[in-house]
């Protein structure tokens, strides 16, 4: 095991995470204590890049503090997670290959239509190593939202092409995107993308003053069960950026993943407004299980949820303020394109624009 992965495992063990360092991801239930891991990454000075060397390479310090030598101008980039795919597209680059989105057999619908034509090299939980090698990448981008706690797979990928770990499960989406930009040698472009997002979020927040005293919940409904998207995940970050309040029990960071809520405790998902999404019957480990993730699918699942005892007594439901949204956007993960779509949805739901 490399020093890089000894660092990773030490962080995991120190955080008392149940998943062993030698195991592979088993699906959406695999969760890391991201506060400890983020602290470890920060302590190693991750997220820096050096100027190109004479041989046409650059050195990037990844999210685990490992120095990775990458091409100064990569031409065939492969992305193996939703945040890295979103990030490279936001920077104007079409990757040579990617993986299907969480709970899907394709990439997420919110991405540009051209993204549907990118060759698929497996799923976020199970990348196809042979297909990745056949794509002849000169740079591979991964993060903890996909290849989570799997050193042997990372080492295999490193034999194919320089592999940069851009972020941790449940980590800061902006830091993840910034490291994607650094790995591509597009730091200035990345800074502009983030500045544009924050400028738009600030402008939209200024128009939401009439909602300042209301509360907002983000719910994923899967297989007749509910889970909460808390403040550390992208959709939660977006609500914070917009100055929108969470209910008291949700006014906190989670563990880097959606938090299940027992049906007998359904009141925990309530708020003045609920943004309500689904990933159909699928999961990250079983994308073929069927069901959709778009707002129409959320509307259909909402009608099913309304038959659950206690759902129709929720304040948001009684007020007609449960908003069906695309689960691939609101209850999954991504980068600047996903965050921009969330701003669109909030504007449409609360301002009618």
Automatic annotation (TrEMBL):
Residue ranges of domain Fe/B12 periplasmic-binding in the record: 76-353
Protein name as it appears in the record: ABC transporter substrate-binding protein
Entry's localization field: Cell envelope
Pfam families recorded: Peripla_BP_2
Keyword annotations of the record: Signal, Transport
Xref: Gene3D superfamilies: Nitrogenase molybdenum iron protein domain (3.40.50.1980)
Source organism of the structure: Nakamurella alba
InterPro entries: ABC_transptr_periplasmic_BD, Bact_iron-sidero_bind
Family annotation (PROSITE patterns): FE_B12_PBP, PROKAR_LIPOPROTEIN
Signal peptide: 1-22
Family per similarity comment: Belongs to the bacterial solute-binding protein 8 family.
GO cellular component annotations of the record: outer membrane-bounded periplasmic space
Gene Ontology biological-process entries: iron coordination entity transport
